[in-house]
Amino acid sequence: MKYILVTGGVISGLGKGVIASSLGALLKSCGLSVTSIKIDPYLNIDAGTFSPYEHGEVFVLDDGGEVDLDLGNYERFLDVMLCRNNNITTGKIYQDVVEKERRGDYLGKTVQVVPHITNAVQEWVEKVAMEPLHDNSVADVCIIELGGTIGDIESMPFVEAFRQFQFRVCRENFCVVHVSLIPMPGSTGEQKSKPTQNSVRELRGLGLSPDFIFCRGNVPIQDHVKTKVSMFCHVSPDKVISVHNCKSLYRIPPLIAEQNVVQLLKDRLGLGSLSQPFQTKSALKIWYELAERQENVRNEVHIGLVGKYVQMEDAYISVVKALTHAALHCNLKLVIQWVDAEDLEIMKADQDPVHYHDAWKKLCGCSGVLVPGGFGSRGTEGMILAINYARKKNIPFLGVCLGLQLAVVEYSRNILNLEDANSSEFKSDTENPVVIEMPEHNPGHLGGTMRLGKRTTVFKSEKSSIYKLYGCKEYIQERHRHRYEINPAYVKQLEKYGMKFVGHDVDGERMEIMQLEEHPFFVGVQFHPEFLTRPHKPSPPYLGLILAASGKLTNYISRGCRMSPSNSLGNLSSFKELSV
Fold this sequence. Notes:
By secondary structure, the chain is an alpha/beta fold. It is built from 20 helices and 21 strands.
């Protein structure tokens, strides 16, 4: 097993996850199997109880693990399925060690950070790295991202663990990639290497010497700056890699590959005997195509994302990726109108008329409406108003999790004339609880008590467009994260008035997919399809929304759910063969 540790210096948010994912994608193009581990040095057991304003989206895995959003980057870039153990937190490690101490596993010894915590980290990494992937193969390379910034007190035990780990697995099997910032103050216009020098000095003082330094900046790193970084950071000049800001995220793998990183990694880790030759053009073609399409498409599709966390775009990062992948698949430029659900509510017209009218102006200018997941009552009445608008005006609509539940509430109020219809999450004493808490939910704790992970949905109708978008499959498997569901007692009444539940769980008790009859595209799903989107394989519900919003859904379905040759990835007319 070969290990690549990715660390960060100077500031957080440099894009370690994207760089780690890009390295993995390039190694996969050589025929290597790659797995990833993300280390978050906080005391939480997992990300499940985080506020979206703290760390952005909570990403959910097949096994129900609630993890950091960076694991979503890994899955999308590497096209792999990870598990909850691929996300390590300080809380998990300490919980593991304390449980062992309570059982007497340490035979009465004093339990300390060194060696017990550091040993637990190393054992966890080795165990996860050797676990079979979704295709039952064992990875050749494990890429480990250490969250936070070198020097943070929270990450010190992990840095020490990897200082020991490099000798445990032998130096030739362990490589350190350090991602650092090269700022360029506006007053001088000169790129400064001193912060990177200080960061590397601190890393080396802790016992880890970087093999590669990835220099982040707004513009390409100048040659004399790379030379200075090489000189003062004890790294050869060819291993100082420039990663500047790009128009498209898909430019990052080619940008790294152009600097011969694949061959340098092969030489450093002895990967030559394990891998195929890196065929530059063929390996990078899909990334060039995606980047060219994202940067050069002209026809726009405007989607109104009506949510309660719109001030923090990372709270909906997988939703944005799913919309982006679907738009690129249709050769369209995605324009998201971020609409704060609270600003749509009637009371806002009196309290803050400017925001109220701006919100409705943005929504009315969209050709599609999306209401994503969320928790709590704040903003839900605004979401219901947006759903009502989309239904009455025949605007394509997609509701995800909470979006499905609120679509049922809106329909119950305005079509079934159940004026007090609501979710028991928001009004526990409502006479018409069309959305109820799941019977098995344990309210004693918040963490890990929801219906989580991959579940099977069985289609009940072969006439629905969503069935066709999924390839006319008898059943599908998608990831869930919810503790409330549609009340089965109201299903017959809703279906009588045209709201069809075309997908159920395997027992037929839970409503998974809703589609409204006599509407161009009005779909709600209880699961989160955005968690399984891929750049080359967009999520069907999101693809349906984009197609309907651009007036292409009918033709797409009539062609057997295939894009026209001119729109397909791999046949991009503007793509030019680029040599690197």
